[in-house]
Design goal:
By secondary structure, this protein is α+β, with helices and mostly antiparallel strands. The chain contains 15 helices and ten strands. Helix 1 packs parallel to helix 3, helix 5 runs antiparallel to helix 8 and helix 9 packs antiparallel against helix 10. The structure holds flavin-adenine dinucleotide (FAD).
């Protein structure tokens, strides 16, 4: 086994190309078409977007989260992490590179659990960037605790009939199909009694009550649907994976999604950090540059360390996933602790680094004239999306504790008096000879 923190020159070339391409060609889309990367493109936007996607495909960089047999590059998670550190700078970049959430996660589960027919109908157009998809799991009364979900699917002949409500189903209004999680057997534990369904968007009974906007989105064009599923009928063949497999599938999907979010968060932190440093090196007050003041230096050091900590945790976790995949284990169960830690660190780093960068810019930081305002509006998202920080903190602790054992009796085995006595007895002869020297 070897440890290596360097990037192969051939892949570094690709990263350099991505860096320039995102900066020069993609980031301007964020300014000209803000928040429209989840919209169905009209002729104007299509004319801009398609040539960019073609250049990405020509470079062999399209849909890098997937294996070659599914149209991806099979680079694995480590290379994807290095790419996402660059793509995360732009809202549009994931769409231009075919790695946009939630379509990436949805594609992964259809690839892993779908039948050949399901793959042909849903997966291939998704991979080609020809449609959007929606993941409909959270409910109005329950998000962090899926055991409290109530949406029900009941078998009726060759069909399943779905009834219930879902909340914050992102992109429902533009999606061609939804992946819906519902209870299929209320008599067993939720872990074995829920299933996933592929539901075409035009199925009767899908009633979007409202498209909820986030604090940073256009209030008139919210992206996160509150949906009532009212007697929604799908053929039995639209069950994704086996009956009762929803939890297993959700973990597969959310595991990948969480680490991909964390990878992109590094890009946001780096952007805010660069602005912070530039400002510190340029702004004079009370006789010196901000960069010369020790309290400012403290903020810069804390931010740099936090980003490095996040980056190493993400890269190591990505490397672990690749190692496990190479050994034939494609579930994320073995890296739950690491993925949860990445999610927690990412939420904290974005919050802290963006806040410090804003603070260092003074009034300018409070304005809408720098990218920091938008970053700050996004900052809390990372602590909520795909499960809140508290739940992931608990996951880390539970997994860590599984690696330890309780001791029997009142006194712990690491009590010093007994251990010292035993050590002294072991080295009694040597200690006797050393008496004069001690
Ligand atoms: C931008 C965005 C996009 C989203 N997209 C989707 C989507 O496409 N599909 C989908 O199904 N869902 C989506 N969600 C929903 C998301 O998965 C849920 O918001 C998340 O799981 C939390 O559930 P909740 O909102 O019901 O919060 P709750 O479960 O009510 O939790 C609220 C708060 O309670 C506290 N809390 C909860 N559990 C614990 C605990 N165990 N210990 C201590 N404190 C706790 C935390 O502070 C937490 O933030 C999205 C959310 C956001 C913000």
């Amino acid at each position: 086994m070897s440890w290596d923190f360097s990037t192969e020159p051939e892949f570094q070339e690709k990263l350099d190309w991505i860096d320039d391409f995102v900066r020069e060609e993609v980031e301007p889309l964020d300014l000209a078409f803000p928040d429209q990367h989840y919209e169905i493109a009209g002729p104007g936007l299509t004319g801009v977007l398609e040539p960019l996607k073609a250049r990405v495909k020509d470079r062999g960089l399209w849909a890098c989260h997937l294996e070659p047999e599914l149209g991806g590059q099979g680079y694995g998670q480590l290379k994807l992490a290095l790419m996402n550190e660059l793509l995360g700078r732009s809202g549009w970049a994931p769409r231009v590179f075919g790695t946009q959430a939630p379509d990436t996660g949805n594609a992964e589960i259809i690839a892993k659990y779908g039948t050949e027919e399901q793959k042909a109908t849903y997966l291939l157009p998704l991979l080609n960037g020809e449609m959007f998809s929606c993941y409909s799991m959270t409910e109005p009364q329950a998000g962090s605790d899926p055991k409290m979900f109530t949406t029900r699917a009941e078998r009726d002949g060759d069909e399943w009939v779905i009834n219930g409500e879902k909340f914050f189903s992102s992109n429902a209004r533009v999606s061609s199909f939804f992946i819906v999680m519902a209870i299929t057997n209320p008599d067993v534990s939720a872990y074995r009694g829920m299933s996933m369904f592929l539901v075409p968007a035009d199925t009767p009974g899908i009633n979007i009550v409202r498209n909820v906007a986030t604090m940073y989105g256009d209030a008139e064009r919210g992206s996160h649907a509150w949906i009532k599923y009212e007697n929604v009928r799908v053929p039995a063949t639209n069950l994704l994976g086996g009956e009762g497999q929803a939890f297993v599938i959700a973990q597969t999907r959310l595991g990948g999604g969480r680490i991909h979010h964390a990878m992109r968060s590094i890009a946001v932190c780096n952007q805010a950090f660069d602005m912070m440093c530039q400002r510190a090196l340029s702004r004079h007050t009370q006789g010196s540059l901000l960069a010369d003041k020790q309290l400012v230096q403290g903020q810069i050091t804390e931010s740099w360390m936090q980003i490095q900590q996040l980056r190493f945790m993400v890269l190591h976790t990505a490397w672990l996933i690749d190692q496990r995949t190479a050994a034939g284990d494609v579930s994320s169960a073995g890296v739950r602790k690491e993925i949860a830690a990445c999610k927690v660190l990412a939420a904290r780093a974005i919050h802290d680094v963006v806040y410090r960068a804003i603070h260092l810019h003074g009034a300018l930081g409070m304005s809408q004239d720098t990218p920091l305002a938008r970053m700050w509006q996004h900052a809390p998202t990372m602590g909520i999306v795909d499960g809140p920080t508290e739940v992931h903190v608990a996951t880390v602790a539970k997994q860590v504790l599984k690696e330890h054992q309780p001791y029997e009796g009142t006194w712990p085995p690491y009590m010093l008096p007994e251990r010292t006595e035993a050590a002294r007895a072991r080295f009694a002869e040597a200690l006797e000879h050393e008496v004069g020297n001690l």
